[in-house]
Amino acid sequence: MFDLMVNSLLALFDWAHLLALVAGVTIGMFLGSIPGLSGTLGLALMVPFTYNMPLTVAVVLLTATYKASSFSGSLSSIMLGTPGTPAAAATMFDGYKLFKKGKGWKAIQMSIYSSATADLLTDILLLLAVAPMALLALMFGPPEFLILVALALLSVASISETKKGSLIKNIISGLIGLFIAMIGMEALAGSPRYTFGSTSLLNGIDIMIAVLGLLCLPEVFMQISQKVKKGKLVKVKDVGKEEEGLTFLEYMKALPSILRGTIVGAIIGILPGAGPSMGAFMNYQMEHSRSKSRKDKVRVGEGSLRGVAAAESGNSAVGGANLIPMFSFGIPGDAAAAILIGAFVIHGVTPGPMIMERSPDIVYTAILGLIIANLILIPIALLYSKMFKRIINKIDASIIYPIVLVICLAAAYTVRQSMLDLAIIVILGLLGILIIKAGFSRVAIIIGLILGGLTEQSFGQTLMIGKGSLFVVFDRPISLVLLTLVIIFLLWSLLSKAVKARSESAKKAGGIEQ
């Protein structure tokens, strides 16, 4: 294992890999920092450009883009008061207040250093944990994978994408994804399903077309429909000159918050479907409560560097940890990891229990690429953040979104050179808008689609093992443990939703009485 790590590390210092690292960090930094162009969208747009690249170069480029786009949403949160990514929303609470006080440079540096610290620690955790977790995954049979998929879909269902979202709607979204995955050839019998006589649909709906259609096109359509052609994407207010940069003492004072955020984010990241937004808000809420009990001079929520550190470490720590279930079990931790799975499959590598036996060099190249990208990110982020204000004021929205639309359509056609795929991506884009407005979850649909093949195969094989009965899951210790986790998770989700609804109704009742 150590020899593989060393060889993978040495390979990364080849000029092609270094260029891919720098390019990935730079592109991801740009895409993640612009509101409306999320890191997930940017990652999806990058995949078609890797089709003709060597596998390891493509992997390094995509993982570097993933890393940088996950971080750079904090720049617009701090300077614009508008999160570039959903995960950066918690950073805005303190970061934008600091910026308006003339301490924006301190806030930006704190976001960079706290993000880099948490990222580096969880990347090391990923490096150490991926092999043991893959060995554990080899102990899993069809019944275990069937329950694990159910746990993944439930955990995704517990995260609402919109304010209208609910547990039931998110479960339905996951089931829609499973249904879309059923289009094409049946996994076990080999007979066509829901193809309507079209040979183009025998291989099903391609993952990348679904990702671009559901995640990218709705954003583009909505931005264009909002008449963004009137002017710039956003306008940075002139709030005066920033004070001096972050001091080492200020960083050390925030370090306990960063380390707590790393632990919280790592735990959340291992859970499929939780995502960086949960890590950011959970750690931010913990630091907010601690700040009240400590009676800080500047409390979290009022323009505190600790608040920026808590939010950034919480969301960045998820990034490395959520690749553990991706590599070990083939189950994506969030939408970005789902796109990475699709990219790996396109290049002939399937993440899952066998990946450490068949392609361990690819895994270590990807993980070590993340670590090096993290180090490259620091100087690029410091330089880019100074340029960001000027860049964001010069970008014309009437140009950027049509370009994104053309890239999406070209990428869809490139997959199978089929006009049907162009029709599918447009239909999915329009469907995505309806899904958003109705409060359903596009992420749950995507993850349901990715898990569809594994779900069907595991379900069929479990029935074969149990001779037509699913009760075989009760005869296996690992599946029993997983089944218990599913029940606990479902009860916890329902209970937490009920408590939240009750507290909100109590607040409304109190407001009416007053």
TrEMBL record:
Location of the DUF112 domain: 18-446
Source species, domain of life: Bacteria
Organism of provenance: Halalkalibacter krulwichiae
Name assigned to this protein: Tripartite tricarboxylate transporter TctA family protein
Chain ranges passing through the membrane: 12-31, 43-66, 78-99, 145-160, 167-189, 201-222, 335-356, 362-383, 395-413, 419-436, 443-465, 477-495
Pfam family, one: TctA
Coiled coil region boundaries: none
Keyword Glycosyltransferase carried by entry: no
UniProt-listed PANTHER family: TRICARBOXYLIC TRANSPORT PROTEIN
Keyword tags: Membrane, Transmembrane, Transmembrane helix
